[in-house]
Design brief:
Blueprint (H helix, E strand, L loop, with lengths): L2 H30 L2 E3 L1 H7 L7 E7 L5 E3 L4 E7 L4 E7 L11 E9 L2 E9 L8 H9 L3 H10 L4 H4 L2
Parallel strand pairs: 1-2, 5-7
Antiparallel strand pairs: 2-4, 2-6, 3-4, 4-5, 6-7
């Protein structure tokens, strides 16, 4: 075999191995990616039961109910257009409250979101950026701004 042909074979083999490695890395990332959705997105896109997502919105007023000896909590997340019932088995964050922004991670099964993790806002002026964006996209941000003004907060401070 001529040196030129050996070099070409080596380059092709190297590029092939590099391509396979890149493919494996991308497959690993795809399995661990969790997309954010609002309740409206979940209802419109009909997300499959085997796909992990993050569901964000506001905890609907009057929807929080503790069941099964206080170990399971049921509540509703809304983007002020659509609502999704949520079941969560575990301890809720201390800052979890009705009417506040929340992001839950889990699966949608039979129209009910089964959360593995619930994340609440970190202070009275914060709303997760994904939740604020989803509310703006749904056209309901004005209602949130009015509510924040009534409580002495600003919409700009709510997302910082």
């Amino acid at each position: 075999m001529k040196p030129k042909r050996k070099r070409l074979t080596f380059v092709i083999l190297g590029l092939s191995l590099l391509g396979i490695a890149a493919g494996l890395v991308l497959m690993a990332f795809e399995e661990n990616i969790v997309f954010f959705h609002s309740p409206t997105d979940v209802k419109e896109k009909n997300i499959g039961a085997d796909r992990r997502i993050r569901l964000g919105g506001l905890v609907e007023e009057g929807s929080v109910k503790k069941t099964a000896g206080g170990k399971t909590v049921e509540f509703t997340i809304t983007d002020l257009n659509e609502t999704i019932p949520v079941i969560y088995a575990g301890l809720l964050p201390d800052l979890f409250r009705e009417g506040q922004g929340v992001v839950a991670e889990g699966l949608v099964k039979n129209g009910v979101f089964q959360a593995d993790e619930v994340l609440a806002k970190h202070d009275e002026n914060y709303m997760p950026p994904e939740v604020a964006d989803a509310l703006k996209e749904s056209g309901q941000w004005q209602h949130v701004e009015e509510k924040l003004k009534n409580s002495g907060q600003t919409a700009e401070g709510a997302t910082q």
